[in-house]
Specification:
four-stranded antiparallel sheet; 8 strands; alpha+beta; single chain; 148 residues
Length: 148
């Protein structure tokens, strides 16, 4: 009986460890930007955005490519994270654009455009709680890039 109890205890401990690896392992290795974005594909570029008035890092935008579509999302950070402020995120190519604008607490987007055979750019505008436009970044500053 003592041997059976020891074997059962060892088996349960091993099962718990294996279950923990199976559940926690994938969570620990999942890319954070992809998990929260709603964009398919792989991150091909990311840009940090800074408040013109304070110099503080207030958002990071991520551009994704899945082989057919480009997708962009802008995640708030720092003192802007969790605070509802106006944001406008626009993904552009030479003949079309798509956007997401409104008052957001955590992120703007995702915004997607068909990208095969096109080059893209995006722009992020953010306003502070006083309604002052403090971020206006076009990526790249001129022209288009990340051609699909």
């Amino acid at each position: 009986m003592k041997g059976l109890k020891f074997t059962l205890t060892r088996w349960l401990a091993s099962a718990a460890v294996l279950l923990g690896v199976a559940v926690v392992g994938p969570l620990a290795t999942a890319p954070a930007a992809s998990a929260a974005s709603g964009c398919a594909g792989t991150v091909v570029d990311s840009v940090k955005h800074y408040d013109y008035l304070t110099g503080a890092h207030v958002a990071t935008s991520y551009l994704y490519w899945d082989g057919t579509y480009n997708c962009v999302i802008a995640n708030k950070t720092g003192s802007y994270y969790g605070v509802s402020t106006r944001m406008a995120l626009v993904l552009m190519r030479s003949d079309a654009q798509q956007g997401d604008s409104g008052n957001f607490s955590y992120y703007a987007g995702p915004v997607s455009l068909y990208g095969k055979g096109y080059c893209v750019a995006w722009e992020l505008d953010m306003w502070n709680t006083n309604g002052v436009n403090t971020v206006q970044d076009r990526v790249p500053a001129g022209g288009y890039f990340h051609c699909g």
